[in-house]
Design goal:
The protein is an alpha+beta fold. The protein folds into two domains: 74 residues, Glutaredoxin (3-Layer(aba) Sandwich), CATH 3.40.30; 128 residues, Glutathione S-transferase Yfyf (Class Pi), Chain A, domain 2 (Up-down Bundle), CATH 1.20.1050.10. The protein is 58% helix and 8% strand. Strands 2-1-3-4 form a four-stranded mixed sheet. Strand 3 and strand 4 form a beta hairpin. Helix 1 runs parallel beside helix 3, helix 4 runs antiparallel to helix 5 and helix 4 crosses helix 7. The longest helix is centred in the middle third of the chain and has 27 residues. The relative contact order is 0.13.
Length: 220
């Protein structure tokens, strides 16, 4: 009996996008269901994630897996015969989890502040964002990917940020490529993979959504 895999997501969500990339990288067929996260959430989402009531949710043979990094590791462990994302060495695995968690708790949260605030708050968020991506760039070193020679756990956790670069740069008035050329090159290198390029939305489309949200929030 074939696995039944369903992904509940929202098209610009960096958290949902990383699961789309992982499933594509593993060659796993799945059903994608778009959620209207700003209006009426589906009954399936509410039943699958009753605690946080948010996307993404990975449903494997009827069993939901919540929180994107947990789901990402679940994908890697469940389909472990295809394109492993986490290294086999326990220490290297711990480091990959650490930096993926750093991406979640720093990069994406601070990035949101860049486009949801004004004036000095934007400046402070931009400075903090640049400081954080410089730390990430230092961890990358001279490796082509965070996973070494191939796409790894941290790469998949991070690369959806590519779709948001234009938003961050526009409101923060900076250039990711100029500030962190090695990190930018790594993200672009990831984008050359079909599993990434076919999963990520266009930057202009993300920017248009952000402008709509800013208007609704009264930021403009």
């Amino acid at each position: 009996m074939a696995d039944e895999v369903v992904l509940l997501g929202f098209w610009p969500s960096t958290y949902a996008l990383r699961l789309r990339i992982a499933l594509a990288e593993k060659g796993i067929k799945y059903e994608y269901k778009e959620e209207d996260v700003y209006n009426i959430k589906s009954q399936l989402l509410l039943e699958s994630n009753p605690v946080h009531k948010k996307i993404p949710v990975l449903i494997h043979n009827g069993k939901p897996v919540n929180e994107s990094l947990i789901a990402l590791q679940y994908i890697d462990e469940t389909w472990n015969d295809k394109a492993p994302l986490l290294p086999s060495d326990p220490y290297l695995r711990s480091q990959a989890r650490f930096w993926a968690d750093f991406v979640d708790n720093k990069i994406y949260d601070i990035g949101r502040k860049i486009w949801t605030t004004k004036g000095e708050e934007v400046e402070a968020a931009t400075k903090e964002f640049i400081d954080c991506i410089k730390l990430l760039e230092a961890e990358l070193g001279d490796k082509p990917f965070y996973g070494g020679e191939t796409l790894g756990f941290v790469d998949v956790a991070l690369v959806p940020i590519y779709s948001w670069f234009y938003v961050y740069e526009k409101f923060g008035n900076f250039s990711v490529e100029r500030e962190c050329p090695k990190l930018f090159a790594c993200v672009k290198r990831c984008f050359e993979k079909e599993s990434v390029s076919k999963s990520l939305p266009d930057q202009d489309k993300v920017y248009s959504l952000v402008m709509e949200i800013r208007t609704k929030l009264g930021i403009e």
